[in-house]
Amino acid sequence: MPGNEQSLLQRTTDFPAGQPVIQLAGISLRYSQSAAHIQALADINLELSGDDFVCVLGPSGCGKSSLLNIIAGFLQPTTGTITVDGNIHSKPDPQVGVVFQHPNLFPWLSIEKNIEFGLKMKQVGKEQRKELVAHYLQLVGLDGFAKLLPFQLSGGMKQRAAIARTLATDPRMILLDEPFSALDAFTRETMQKNLYDIWHKTRKCLLFITHDVDEALLLAKRIIIMQPNPGRIVNDFPNPLLRRPEQAFSRLRSAKEFNDMRQFLIGQIHS
Ligand SMILES: Nc1ncnc2c1ncn2[C@@H]1O[C@H](COP(=O)(O)OP(=O)(O)OP(=O)(O)O)[C@@H](O)[C@H]1O
Fold first, then answer.
1. Which of 123, 126, 262, 270 has its CA 20 to 30 A from that of 231?
2. Is residue 65 lining ligand 1, measured as CB closer than 6 Å?
């Protein structure tokens, strides 16, 4: 692998694992609509490390999307600050990548051109772009589909292309907003395995929002529970079932500990 590509692919490893990537201090958010106010978030304090895979669970309306939009820089908090690697973060920034529920690829660009797009924006040279695109296409298992247009791919393949596009620019962290919720159950499980393997290989800091307790238990290294009125974090703990890559989902799902944790999480969400 050429030296330049090596440095781009491995840039995240320049930061020691375990070092905070992002810190949220005293974040609150109040939506004001005419005379009505909604306190969507209150007193959010959070620190995510370089190799965290955090799943955020909580009932509808507890502020998960608001929190993600603030971290993405799409929304300004009413109070509080966010820092990325110690620097104030207050607007969309290539250091924080986002994968949405719908892959929103550029429909007129081939899959490889979609992945290359962010690299062009970063002014990465042509040869290096080519190698990075090939690397990330392979990482998400789309190496045979580079020349196709998005409409020629299945929903799961499009979402993998969107993940590759975000990974290719090597952000410090990636926010994923229910990225598999529009997929059928079988594709969803395949995608969960894919994402877990990608995280295991890249050790990228991931913040993943989901409504699905099983999904959180199968994927997360750390689980955060939120509650509404106002939206706040009520629990934040390491997933005791953190899976080894070779462990089958079906095996983990059938374990008594899995069912116990599932009941615990459902109780926490609905308490
Ligand atoms: N643009 C907005 N203007 C006013 N209120 C909003 C806006 N967006 C969200 N809210 C309110 O803020 C609170 C949190 O909403 P948010 O969408 O962040 O929750 P959520 O946990 O992501 O919900 P869901 O799981 O249903 O997607 C809710 O009471 C919601 O009605």
1. 262
2. yes
